[in-house]
Design brief:
Elements: E1 27-28, H1 39-49, E2 64-65, E3 77-85, H2 94-102, E4 106-111, E5 122-130, E6 138-142, E7 148-155, H3 176-179, H4 181-197, E8 201-202
Parallel strand pairs: 6-8
Antiparallel strand pairs: 1-2, 3-5, 3-7, 4-5, 6-7
Length: about 210
């Protein structure tokens, strides 16, 4: 009998062999860019950042609660604030802002009140962002006169991204699209097809 034929080891069904109960108040997280981020340094730093030195051990990097049976998409999203610039004055409405923010992720909040003076050159929106998606910095918007404007988007507290595919999970020197010519060609073909099918975002006309 080979080692592969051995029966798998079975642990006793006892609380001594699990951490489910002891981790009920724990937080779980993930590194966005593990090639450039040290989990050990983060574990040492986070208690200081959260002002809980001496009261915790082993800190995770997001505020998702402990889950003994996490779903497939667990820790695959994060809530971030974005700043949207260059919205045309004739389209400066909450619905326009919501449409533009939804291009980045699921919209949780638009920090804009049409009844209050607006003094910033941008509007802020909180979105749930999929960490494996590109963090797009610009988006073309069709306007009523037949032209287009370039909408710009900044990501608050997001300092690094791949400058080729715009994802947060690696830097350009480790971009899998650049290291794999087949993937690069596939992404290029998909990009051209998407560009041909929809040159720019068009605001839908709704009945008043």
């Amino acid at each position: 009998m080979s080692l592969d034929d051995e029966e798998p080891l079975v642990l006793p069904d006892s609380p001594q062999y699990t951490v489910i109960d002891s981790n009920e108040t724990s937080l779980l997280g993930r590194l966005l860019n593990p090639d450039c981020q040290s989990i050990y340094r983060m574990i040492e730093y986070m208690p200081t950042a959260w002002r809980v030195v001496g009261r915790v051990k082993g800190i995770a990097l997001s505020r998702d609660r402990w889950n003994s049976s996490p779903p497939d998409d667990f820790l695959s999203t994060l809530e971030i604030w974005i700043r949207i610039r260059n919205i045309p004055v004739n389209n400066f409405t909450s619905q326009t802002m919501h449409t533009l923010a939804s291009e980045i992720g699921h919209v949780e909040e638009i920090a804009y009140d049409p009844k209050v003076s607006h003094t910033k050159e941008y509007i802020r929106a909180k979105v749930t962002f999929k960490v494996d998606s590109p963090a797009k910095a610009t988006r073309k918007l069709s306007i009523k006169n037949g032209g287009t404007v370039t909408i710009e988007c900044d990501y608050e507290k997001i300092h690094k991204r791949c400058f080729h595919c715009l994802r947060l999970t690696h830097e350009k020197v480790r971009c899998p699209l650049l290291r794999n010519p087949a993937k690069l060609q596939q992404a290029s073909d998909q990009g051209r097809a998407q560009k041909q099918s929809s040159q720019s975002l068009v605001l839908a006309k709704t009945k008043g």
